[in-house]
Task: structure prediction
Amino acid sequence: MKVSIQGVSKSFGKTVAVDNVTFDIRDGELFFLLGPSGCGKTTVLRLIAGFYAPNAGDVLFDSKSVNNVPPNKRNTGMVFQNYALWPHMTVAENVAYGLDVRGVSCDEKQRRVRDALAIVRMAELADRSPTQLSGGQQQRVALARALVINPGILLLDEPLSNLDAKLRLETREEITRIHSETRQTMLYVTHDQKEALSMADRIGVMNAGRLVQVGTPHEIYRTPNSRFVADFIGEMNFIEGKVERVTESEVMVATAYGLLVAQASSLRSTSDCKLEACATVTCGIRPEALTPTRGDGAINHIHATVQRATYLGEIEHYTLTLPDGQLLRALETNPEVVRQPGEKLTLTVRTEDIILLTR
Amino acid sequence: MNALRFTPHASRVTPATAALLAFLAVFFGLFLFYPLGYMFKAAFWPAGGFTLEFFRLFFNSPFQLECLRNSFALGIIVTALTTVITLPVAHWFSRYSFPGKTLLSGLLLVPMIMPPFVGAIGVKQVFARFGSLNLLLDKLGLVPVENGIDWLGAGGFWGVVILGVLHVYPIMFLNVTAAMANVDPTLREAAENLGARGWRLFRTITLPLVMPGYFAGAIIVFIFAFTDLGTPLLIGYNRVVAVQIFDKVVEVGTNPFAYTLVILVLLLTVVLFLVSKWITGEKSYQMMARGHTAGAETPAPPRLRWMIYCGTIGLILVSLLPHASVVVQSFASHWFMSILPDQMTTQFYGEVFRHPLTLSSIRNSLFFSSLSAFLDLVLGVMIAWLLTRRRVPGANLLDAIAMLPLALPGIVLAFGYVAGFNIPVNPKSLPPAWYQWLHDFMDPSANPTFLLIISYSVRRLPYIVRAAVAGLQQTSVTLEEASLNLGASPLRTMRKITLPLVMANLIAGTILTFSFAMLEVSDSLILAMKEAYFPITKGIYQLIGRVDPNAPAVACALGVLGMVLLAASLLIASKALGKKMGQLFRA
Result:
């Protein structure tokens, strides 16, 4: 099922939780809403489930507005953050509940409950009480309960936030596997960028009630459209500068640390304005894009002093100081030598790794 | 927006919600506010015009003023004695751990469930001028029985005080213990760290922080002592406001003094509550950053432990003495001018089930109490659901109204019912059928069944509302949302998810309301006017007054049966509720 959110706003009292948000979730897609806590992502999810009614805008299921459809008639399957398993029913009864409501025949019900529990690998524990299950097991029962009704869309509200790190990785793979097996349309809400980057078909990044950027994980990471997205997802060094020259393929930016050249196509901004000479821009460079070099050149070379080096085995993390005191972060994979604090270092960056942000 | 957990369709009043609210408005309007308003009207506007004439007459009557003074004295002394008894016990129970603490704290609550009204019969047997104690002292050669000590003091005043204290101290204990346990132990530790300890620490830190909890308990205790009807009536200490009101029920249409008295009691209650709200509001400190409460209890040192045991067990034993003597008396075939009964028999228990009055009163009580408990269950679930699951307009008001009966003296409401639902028929003129029906159904002088059930329900509604609210608050809303999400209708969700999850609380609340209704005193004494409709308590009162020498023993047997029933149902309720039991009795 395809879900469209069109110009939806929702406020609670004076707090605007969701501010004019528009996006589509395609049929069969695993769509992520990613943002810091309080950004309104859970509110969007609950608007789709029907627990809130929008103040403005429309929620469309397969192009039909469901604004006036109560939650129990929407056929969405929700996995709650706290799982919300009913403690007075067994695992199997929990999973069968939605089928009972739909009046599914006894035989079919048993078969579907068995299948759903098999998908989440919980078939053996069907007769247990949810209170006897571990967090991870409860999580999978909640998933089975939502999946078994063949929902139009599966809604996952920070489903991994109550699990420990190892279980989180396993369940991540589990959900990815289930998605690829069932091609179930899913909306997954999280504040964990690693979850989003590793699992999503597409990601919507939210901040302060607004949808900031929508794109594939690659697009979001490689070409963030704003300083917020660049900063929130992964790490990013920001260097201010002035445009010196714009050619067909390249933009030259003069900074306090030398000349930086970026690809003209890398220019991202919320308003697709043309870059003029002398315009102020911000160059974004990911730490892993900065590589120590022995050579020296006029462009895309930055001189800095090592302030701290953190050795992490396969990589080394550097915190460096630029001549004017600004900090710079860099990574080196499989480092040749151990670098000491105080050591002077020249770093180089590829043209395509510089992201130009106009704001 | 995880902080904002709103329920489905929050702040939208659905037709179902509106219907519930309308129903509750009619119910409370008719059975809570109408009787109160009626009495106001009768007291201030008896003939249409406003007058303070009755109050002037009242305050010019030395007898009425004496009654008022006596009631005040009862209230103040009972509250003071309760405070003195409770503070050390509450201190021990909130600060120290010791073996048997759970059992003892349970036993401390037992006196609360034993109606002091029944205990009064036993107290008279033991402490009267020719009672067991004086006879014992005579036999020991200490005090000759001819000028034996007047234990009940000043016409029974001290008897009423002691029975009152022994009955209500658990309410104070629960409130003060809770307040003490709520004091962040680090606040005390900070004071100790700065050099304060012992009495100074208690006076400067603990006491001010506990004050709101203490006041909440003290108000309930004071109002109870001020308005208790059963105990003074049975002891024969009649010069108190409650008994005066009771005596005037029969002349409800003609004697305006009764309204004056009721209105005075009501105003006093309101004033006390406003004062306590003001005090607690001023002094209620939000506990910032609660520390680890686990560190609040330290094991009691051996010497203190023995002190705790002696104090607590002594208190429990003394407070059960009246009831123990009721039990003895129920087996006593002849107990007159002797320390202990001459002969023991079980015949009175047989008689309870043969005697027409006792038999019908047991039947009546069971019937009234079951229906009132059921009504409370329905009302309680409605109110709790509206309060916790719907953000209805006026939720705070609804909460306040549902809790109001906790503070409303029983005699006030019962008297209001008698006055407000007085639907006289003139036997000479044939009234219209609906009016005759209204008279037969509503007027307590014709048939009190309906109003007794309603008054029991209204009086005990706070308990079941608390129980249901507690259950619903503990049950995450997401459990209901999950059901809606899977396609279940709101009604099905209620039936399959919500109700099963709060069942334990509902059962406990219902049992509580049932058992309190079984031994409700003031409503029963005032509203039941014909013997055929007497509940157990009025049956006991009636039997005590009879000349038949066996009647008091039968009354005691009936009382014991009532206590056994009450104890059993409270045991079941506490099993269902677990530790949360105490919360129900707090203000």
Q: What stands out?
A: The mean pLDDT of chain A is 89. The interface with chain B takes residues 12, 15, 17, 37-38, 40, 42-43, 49-53, 70-78, 80-82, 84-88, 97-98, 101-102, 145-146, 149 of chain A (CB under 8 Å). Chain A has two domains: 3-226, 235-357. The helical segments of chain A are 41-49, 91-101, 106-119, 135-147, 165-182, 193-199, 217-222, 227-232.
